[in-house]
Amino acid sequence: GDSVTQMEGPVTLSEEAFLTINCTYTATGYPSLFWYVQYPGEGLQLLLKATKADDKGSNKGFEATYRKETTSFHLEKGSVQVSDSAVYFCALSLQAGTALIFGKGTTLSVSS
Amino acid sequence: GAVVSQHPSRVICKSGTSVKIECRSLDFQATTMFWYRQFPKQSLMLMATSNEGSKATYEQGVEKDKFLINHASLTLSTLTVTSAHPEDSSFYICSAKKTENNEQFFGPGTRLTVL
Predict the structure, then answer these.
(1) Closest by Cβ to B102, choosing from A45, A89, A96
(2) Quick one: which of A30, A73, A102, B31 has the fewest CB in 10 Å?
């Protein structure tokens, strides 16, 4: 069935380090892909998205490119900050407006 | 804008009792809301899709008589866990879909502990 696999955490980095969180998916058709972030005590927030192959989503210094050939949507940031510490979820949607299929989430901890 | 609240944020109850969780879209109308469940170190799993004014659609394996969903208005959906048991202990998260662009906005979640 349709699924999302993302790297196990926690990921621990020093401030200004480079971040990559891997995400791969299995889906029929052409899904839309998303990264959500959950800060402590808050709800999930959309970080970025891409709706078709080769699209790049970007926001707050984070980027992810929809790679159909490798069925991947890896999240990257060139220089992380302490305030980026959160749980990051990769997700897909098979059709606009339908429920999301999530990965397990990756906890990122950034220290100064 | 586009804020979704959940109440309560945490609840502890005795086995056999029922618990109601509310999900509200505070500044937009949502004809569709989704209820997810998250076990520790697991994905969010969709439980049901709640549509305003009609019956909810449940995912396979989710007991509709145990998890009662009511979406009586365009800003409120409720999930009632009936006759709760310890295995129902989990983190329940709702999302509300904004009609104009299909984007989903998530609530902060409700931690249910059944003793």
Answers:
(1) A96
(2) A30
Q: What is the pLDDT of residues A23-53, one digit of tens each?
A: 999 998 889 999 999 888 788 899 999 999 9
Return the DSSP state at B12: E
Q: Note the maximum CA span of chain A.
A: 43
Give tens-digit pLDDT for A39-93: 887 888 999 999 999 999 999 999 999 999 999 999 999 999 999 999 999 999 9
Residue A69 contacts B where some CB pair is shorter than 8 Å: no
Distance from CA of B89 to the nearest CA of A (A): 18
Distance from CA of B16 to the nearest CA of A (A): 28
Q: Which residue has the tokens 């937009």?
A: B28
CB distance A104 to B43 below 8 Å: yes
Closest CA to B107 of B26, B20, B13: B26
**C-alpha atoms less than 13 angstroms from C-alpha of A112 in its C-beta half-sphere:** 2
Q: Determine the straight-line distance between the first and last CA of chain A, rounded to whole angstroms.
A: 41
The residue of chain A nearest to residue B44, with distances taken between CA atoms, is A102
Give the side-chain half-sphere CA count within 13 A for A45. 15
Would the CB atoms of A104 and B42 count as touching at under 8 Å?
A: yes
DSSP classification of residue B88: G
